[in-house]
């Protein structure tokens, strides 16, 4: 069962951001489902990899827009992105080295991060883009 679903409440009012976020919700759910269904490490690792790739692309799109409008909160916003990417990269490394398991605790962490980042940080950005 999906970990969470898209809610109109997540709309920040910028089409490219909302479209990206819808896809991210799907990818976090895919990752969660793969673990819940007891998929092998290779499959779970690959699904996480896809999620990371898309997340980086999405962050890049937001960051380009921030630079384009000379967004005053750029550095703080980018820091949130960078911290998440580095946390997940560490996780992927521990998993690849066999030092850690990927568990639903991680998908829940990603869900909570995404929801709170959307509702606070991205909402401020969307307002500035208007
Ligand atoms: Fe963001």
What would you note in describing this structure?
With 130 residues, the protein is mainly α. The protein has a single domain (15-129), classed as Up-down Bundle (Four Helix Bundle (Hemerythrin (Met), subunit A)). It is built from 4 helices and no strands. The protein has helices at 15-36, 41-68, 74-96, 104-129. Helix 2 runs antiparallel to helix 3. The longest helix is centred in the middle third of the chain and has 28 residues, at 41-68. The chain is globular and about 45 Å long. The mean pLDDT is 97. The structure holds fe (ii) ion (FE2). Residues 62, 77, 81, 117, 121-122 line the site of fe (ii) ion.
Briefly, what is this?
The protein has helices at residues 15-36, 41-68, 74-96, 104-129. With 130 residues, the protein is an all-alpha fold.
| Number of separate domains | 1
Number of strands: 0
- By DSSP (H or I, 4+ residues per run), the number of helices equals 4
Largest sheet: none
Mean pLDDT: 97
CATH fold type: Four Helix Bundle (Hemerythrin (Met), subunit A)
Q: Work out the helicity level.
A: over 70%
CATH homologous superfamily name? Answer: Hemerythrin-like
Radius of gyration: 15 Å
Can you tell me the residue ranges where pLDDT is under 50 for at least 5 consecutive residues?
Answer: none
Write down the CATH class: Mainly Alpha
Q: What is bound: which ligands?
A: fe (ii) ion
Shape: globular
Order of helices and strands: HHHH
The portion of residues forming beta strands comes to under 5%
Kindly report how far apart the N and C termini lie: 36 Å
- Indicate the CATH architecture: Up-down Bundle
SS-based structural class? mainly alpha
